[in-house]
Amino acid sequence: MAVIPVALAGRPYEVHVARDLIGNAAAQARAFIRKERVAVVADANARRFHGARLEASLAAAGIGVDWHELAPGEGAKSWDGLRALVDWLLEREVERGDHVFALGGGVTGDLTGFACAILKRGCGFVQIPTTLLAQVDSSVGGKTAINTAAGKNLVGAFHQPSLVLADLGALDTLPDREMRAGYAEVIKYGILGDAAFFDWLAANGTAVLAREPAALEHAVATSVAAKARIVAEDERETTGARALLNLGHTFGHALEAETGFSDRLLHGEGVALGMVLAARYSARRGLIAPADAERVAEAIATVGLPARLPDLGLDCDGTRLADHMRHDKKMDAGTLPFILLRGVGEAFLARDVELADVAAFLDEELAR
Q1: In sequence order, which residues have a C-beta less than 8 Å from that of residue 235 and are 6 or more positions away?
Q2: For 3-15, how does the pLDDT look when each residue is reduced to its tens digit (9 = 90+)?
Q3: Among 73, 100, 211, 219, which residue's beta carbon has the most beta carbons within 10 A?
Q4: Rounded-to-integer distance, Cα 308 and Cα 311, Å
Q5: pLDDT band per the 50, 70, 90 thresholds, residue 261
Q6: Which of the 8 DSSP states describes residue 136?
Q7: Which residues are catalytic?
Q8: Residues 104, 166: one domain?
Q9: How many whole angstroms separate alpha carbon 361 and alpha carbon 354?
């Protein structure tokens, strides 16, 4: 088992990466269970595939489970979903010293974490991410949020979990498309700050997606360690270091908005194409060689992720896509920072990007 510390001052916690952590959850998380029953928030798919193992583990330790089940999908991350969850937790008389368990993907973790951030001004929670994307990204770092009519993740809080159990066995039930979407966040760590990891993934990405045990554990543990380092350096995204984790997201969120935040384009797919666009835009500005931008595109296309904007079949122009970016939560004094590249493994925060130029670039990409 890999154990990765997230070294936050006064609030350190660990991410455990191994198989069968759900079946051993009572022992792993015993320090965070104070009562005879624990509240577990799970989406319907996660409960169907993994709920019985979690419940059996806790039952063997004399602990019962109360379930709050969510419908799968982004729709759960809403005001209505938040209100229903908070009311349920209050009805269960969850106290500030208690921990709520989140079993599922990023939606479950984001919603549960936000509810725990505001419930009685903050109670604890334990993340049990069941998707690759959640294991390497959203379960670590304490960003919690819901979506609103104005955009994605615009209402939320920083609220760190007390423990993350990344059970690699949970990925056995994950559809291949969801695995690829999660892999986008894995390769992101190589592109933004670890050229050697990028090269390793270029050679071993198919093994990771095939869930080969050694390759999968190395990919997840390396990704978590990379995020843990950045979060420890810049927990609340004030110095610019944590902003690097948004590589591909500004473009990706615009694409998600244009496709209605639907299954037409999964979040990880949007990030994958967003990283290709960030690399090509960096090349257009003369920051990296065009060949490096194409290395990024090839590594993403090779594993079956979208790497060409025309393939999405969008009925819009670059200006419309750029307009979606105006609602990005990273807007600061009317300026939107972009994460660009000086090379594979060397991302930086650019504050001099004009959205009109981005729109012109996207028109070029739509015509490729």
Answers
A1: 8, 141, 142, 158, 160, 242
A2: 999 999 889 999 9
A3: 219
A4: 6
A5: confident
A6: I
A7: 121, 143, 185, 227, 237, 242, 246, 249, 253, 267
A8: yes
A9: 11
